[in-house]
């Protein structure tokens, strides 16, 4: 049976040698997630690997120097995403590492419109009192 060969003949075996993983961080607001906006994270196109700079493998939707993320509105406050095969390419095998994106979700700033209104009313009251119109 050895003469029949294997269905895997001609397929290069995985050497286990992959390029460097790349780790980046991004902070997004909760409102961005709720609106369904994609988030573009800056990511270098070249990754250090020993004494070399190796190219980073980009996804088809990614702009140069970045990666486009489509995040769920239910994403936790601190999440680590692994984008397999989007790290640096190994100089010999060409096999890319992974891109690890640490996403921090921050709440939207509190709307402080009531402070602005209170200050405007107070300023108007002071202005009217100073002019002698208040209390008549």
Structure description:
The protein has 136 residues and is an alpha+beta fold. It has a domain at 16-109: HSP40/DNAj peptide-binding domain (Sandwich). The chain contains two helices and seven strands, in the order E-H-E-E-E-E-E-E-H.
Alpha carbon gyration radius = 28 Å
Number of strand segments: 7
Query: Which whole number gives the mean pLDDT?
Result: 81
Distance between the termini: 111 Å
Defining key terms:
136 residues; HSP40/DNAj peptide-binding domain; 3-stranded mixed β-sheet; two-stranded antiparallel sheet
Any chance you could write out the topology, listing elements then pairs?
Elements: E1 22-29, H1 30-35, E2 39-42, E3 46-49, E4 52-55, E5 66-69, E6 78-83, E7 99-106, H2 113-131
Parallel strand pairs: 1-7
Antiparallel strand pairs: 2-5, 3-4, 6-7
Concise description?
This protein has 136 residues and is of the alpha+beta class.
């Amino acid at each position: 049976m050895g003469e029949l060969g294997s269905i895997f003949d001609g397929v290069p075996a995985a050497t286990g040698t992959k390029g460097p993983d790349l780790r980046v961080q991004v902070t997004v607001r909760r409102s961005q997630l709720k609106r369904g906006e994609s988030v573009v994270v800056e990511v270098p196109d070249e990754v250090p690997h020993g004494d070399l700079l190796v190219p980073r493998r980009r996804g088809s939707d990614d702009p140069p120097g970045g990666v486009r993320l489509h995040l769920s509105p239910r994403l936790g406050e601190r999440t680590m995403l692994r984008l397999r095969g989007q790290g640096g390419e190994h100089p010999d095998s060409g096999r890319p590492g992974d891109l690890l994106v640490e996403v921090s979700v921050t709440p939207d700033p509190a709307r402080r419109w009531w402070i602005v209104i209170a200050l405007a009313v107070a300023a108007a009251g002071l202005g009217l009192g100073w002019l002698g119109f208040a209390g008549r």
